[in-house]
Amino acid sequence: MVSFKLNGQRVSAESGATVLETARFYGVPIPTLCEMEGLTPFGGCRLCIVEVGEGEAAKLVTACTAPAQEGLRVRTASKRVIASRRMIVELLLASCPQSKVVQDLAAAMGVHQQRFRQEHEDCLLCGRCVRMCKEQMMSGAIGFQGRGGDRRISTPFDAKSDVCRRCGGCIYVCPACQLRCTFNDPERAVCGGCANLSPPCVGHGQFDDMQCYMDPCAACRIAGA
Amino acid sequence: MNTAEIQGIVAKHQGHPGEVLSILEDLQSRFSYLPEEALRFVAEKTGRPLRDLYGVATFYKMFSFRPRGKHLVSVCLGTACHVRRATLVAEEFEQKLAVKPGETTPDKQITLETVNCVGACALGPIVVVDGHYFPNVKRTTVQKILERTRNEGPRDDPNKDPRIFPVEVRCPRCNHTLMDPENPLEGHPSVRVTISFGANHGCLRLSSLYGSFTIACDFETPPDAVVHFFCPYCHAELLGATSCMECAAPMVPMVIEGGGIVQICSRYGCKGHLLDL
Question: Is residue B52 located within the same domain as residue B109?
Answer without folding.
Answer: no
